[in-house]
Amino acid sequence: MVLLQLDPFLNELTSMFERSTEKRSVWVTLKRSSLKSKSQRNKLVTAGEAIEYRCLIRATDGKKTISTSVGQKDHQRFQASYATILKAHMTALKKRERKDKKKPAEADKREGSSKRSKKS
Amino acid sequence: MVYITEWDKFVEQSIELFRADPDSTRYVMKYRHCDGKLVLKVTDNRQCLKYKTDQAQEAKKMEKLNNMFFALMARGPDVDLSEVTGKEQMDAQPSKKGRGRKQ
Q1: How far apart are the first and last CA of chain B?
Q2: Closest partner residue to A75 among B54, B70, B77, by Cβ?
Q3: pLDDT grade for B92, boundaries at 50, 70 and 90
Q4: pLDDT digits (tens, 9 = 90+) for A31-70
Q5: Cβ A30 vs Cβ A78: under 8 Å
Q6: Is residue B57 part of a domain?
Q7: Which of A1, A31, B53, B64 falls 20 to 30 Å from A57 in CA-CA distance?
Q8: Alpha-carbon gap, residue A73 to B92, rounded angstroms
Q9: Cβ–Cβ gap B73/A32 under 8 Å
Q10: pTM for this model (two decimals)
Q11: Taking CA atoms, what residue in B is nearest to A33?
Q12: What DSSP line would sit under B32-75, residue for residue?
């Protein structure tokens, strides 16, 4: 597992999505972590120092695993770029179809819910 | 493992799970392009919450959840999520007020 800087990670994630279009899945895991070993953490705790946590991000396509981490300062920039990549590559999901049918369905729901509220 | 069918429930329960044990809870997104499927999972190794979809519309909701988890994990579990999710609205409101006062 390679711990990458933010931009190399995003580039690698992009190519991971591109490589796995025909087969395979892509997993992205977010986890809160101090990136320290247990003994290192225990030392900090006994010394009364605060443990700095970061958000660890790992991605895999089943063959290769990459990772990076974001802290308080850079997570907003990262999450914006991450969202852009997801939007650009999650193109196999179904778009909403039959707009005409959707509207009456929603109207029915509203009527249904208003009836329920009247009863209650 | 049972999939949760209601999005709001999934969000609510997964954030609850994270806040109960921030250090061992992880959030996993799995995307399978060839089947057009998206699965979200939140687990602390004892309890497992899953949500699956094939709708593009749901990806937008997922983006919001991503942002919530980024904030929770990078800033800490006590972060105010209403600030994270409602940021755009909060930014827009003061500007409207500003225009009103000028007139």
Answers
A1: 59
A2: B70
A3: very low
A4: 998 888 888 888 888 988 888 888 999 999 999 999 999 9
A5: no
A6: yes
A7: B53
A8: 23
A9: yes
A10: 0.76
A11: B23
A12: ETTTTEEEEEEE-SS-EEEEEE-BHHHHHHHHHHHHHHHHHHHH
Give the count of domains, chain A.
Answer: 1
CA angle A38, A61, A86 (to 5 degrees): 95
Instruction: Write out the residue range of the structural domain in which residue B21 sits.
Output: 2-78
Residues of A in contact with B22 (CB under 8 A): 32
Q: Which chain B residue has its CA at the smallest distance from A80's CA?
A: B67
Residue A73 in tokens: 């300062």
**Is B34 an interface residue toward A (CB < 8 Å)?**
yes
Interval B39-61 mean pLDDT:
92
Q: What is the CATH number of the domain that holds A62?
A: 3.30.720.10
* Strand ranges inside A5-106, DSSP E: 26-33, 54-60, 65-70
Q: Per the domain annotation, does A49 fall within a domain? A: yes
Asked whether residue B48 is assigned to any structural domain, the reply reads: yes
Q: Residue A104: count other Cβ atoms within 10 Å of its Cβ.
A: 9
Identify the CATH number of the domain in which residue B30 sits: 3.30.720.10
